[in-house]
Amino acid sequence: MSVTTVRAVQRDVDVVLEATGTVTALNSVDIRPQVSSVITKVLIREGQFVKAGQALFMLDARTDEVNLAKARAQMARDMASLADAQRQLLRSRDLLAQNFISQGAVDTNQTLVETQQAVVAADRAAIEAAQVGLSYNRIVAPASGRAGAINVFAGSTVQPGGTALVTITQLDPIAVSFSLPQRNLGDALQTLRSGGGKVIAMLPEGRGQSTGKLQFVDSAVDASSGTVRVKAAFDNAQETLWPGAFVSVRLAVRTLKDAVVVPQASVIQSPRGTIVYSVDAESKAVAKRVEVLYAIGPDAVASGVRAGERVVVDGRQNLRPGVAVVERAAAEGGNRPRREGEAASGAAPGAAASGSAAAVTP
After folding, report:
1. 140 HSE (CA, 13 A, CB side)
2. Among residues 120, 261, 292, 315, which one has the fewest Cβ atoms lying within 10 Å of its Cβ?
3. Which pLDDT does position 209 carry in this prediction?
């Protein structure tokens, strides 16, 4: 029998779960005014990146400025009254020492001073309140991010419950949310506890990919779908990922050390179980019972076969144990198992459907 063989390879294999995820911003803030007023200045452009604390809009502040000036004038008047009350208290104490007035007169002046001190404290609070009201007229960015569409212009009247003036969205870092089946919950939690593992997000049509870490596993399984929601964080300085986009996600949950890898094309489902045919030193076919522990792309991790053994790929259908075989050369880039670091050329370009994981758990 003419056959094609490849040698089984021993290497570390990452166990990968695949799903479809949605890119989401870690922070997204709708900017609204806290007071009813009129916009006097728009200080940013649509699509501009802003820093936390940067001024975005200016409102008409004349009324609040007048209220602040009025509160400060009231405090100045009450401070003068307090100073006069304190002088009266000092004179009354001197007169009491000379027995010219009674203790009751001194107590009355003491009460007047304490009352005036309370009035001054209330004035300070009024000034702080006026300053807070005045600060509402300068709208600043609560966090760094990219400004979206600006919905107002200079001269527009705005109210606290109205339409958002603009939305600030953080793009770096960014998150990808996706769902995993309940059976993979333990793997996800173990990956999270060990530091987040490695998560790869791939855009459709090969338009780029990013590498991040698992950041969050939801506290409950969705009873309607039997899935758990998870989230991974990615550095996004190059803006590869954009909020709302769909991506294919691959999550490496653990590594099979020194696993023996054979082509999936060499595995045969027979009435006697799962087997592969290998070629012995006498060029005869030997049937070996194997167990597929994990499959990824064109490769499979199998037990029951040793590294370096010649495994039959093409021509296996008509083989029987003990049949003499003649090996022919394999086509370039054929069913040779990938070595460590090589890409899975036979892997499907897309990911599994949303909420599913295309992984065989060992």
Report:
1. 10
2. 120
3. 87
Which pLDDT score is estimated for 344? Answer: 47
Is the Cβ–Cβ distance between 305 and 311 less than 8 Å? yes
Query: What Å distances lie between residue 81 and 125, 272, 306, CA to CA?
Result: 18, 105, 98
In this structure, what are the phi and psi dihedrals at residue 255, rounded to the nearest 5 degrees?
-125, 130
pLDDT of amino acid 334: 52
Neighbours of 285 (CB within 10 A): 20
pLDDT at residue 161 in the model? 86
Within the chain, where are the H helices? 62-97, 103-135, 185-193
* Exposure class string for 171-203: b at 16+ Cβ within 10 A, else e: bbbbbbebbbbeebbebbeebbeeebbbbbbbb
pLDDT digits (tens, 9 = 90+) for 21-38: 999 999 999 999 999 999
Residue 26 CA to residue 327 CA, distance in Å, equals 57
Look at residue 347 in the predicted model and tell me its pLDDT.
40
Closest CA to 4 of 261, 264, 260, 266: 266
**Tokens read off for 252:** 């490496």
The label of the residue with tokens 């290998």 reads 278
pLDDT value at residue 154? 93
What's the CA gap between 50 and 145, in Å, rounded? 6
CATH of 2-23+172-327, one of 3.30.450.20, 1.10.3720.10, 2.40.30.170, 3.40.50.1390: 2.40.30.170
Write phi, then psi, for 192 (nearest 5 degrees): -65, -45
Please, what CATH class does the domain formed by 27-60+137-169 belong to?
A: mainly beta
SS3 at position 293? strand
User: Token pair for residue 336?
Assistant: 């040779």
Cβ atoms 295, 301 nearer than 8 A: yes
Domain chopping of the chain, boundaries = 2-23+172-327, 27-60+137-169, 62-135
Residue 213 one-letter amino acid: K
**How many residues are recorded in the chain?**
362
pLDDT single digits (tens) 246-266 = 999 998 887 888 889 999 888
Q: Identify the segments of the chain with pLDDT beneath 50.
A: 333, 343-362
CA distance 214 to 195: 8
List the structure tokens of 164.
């958002």
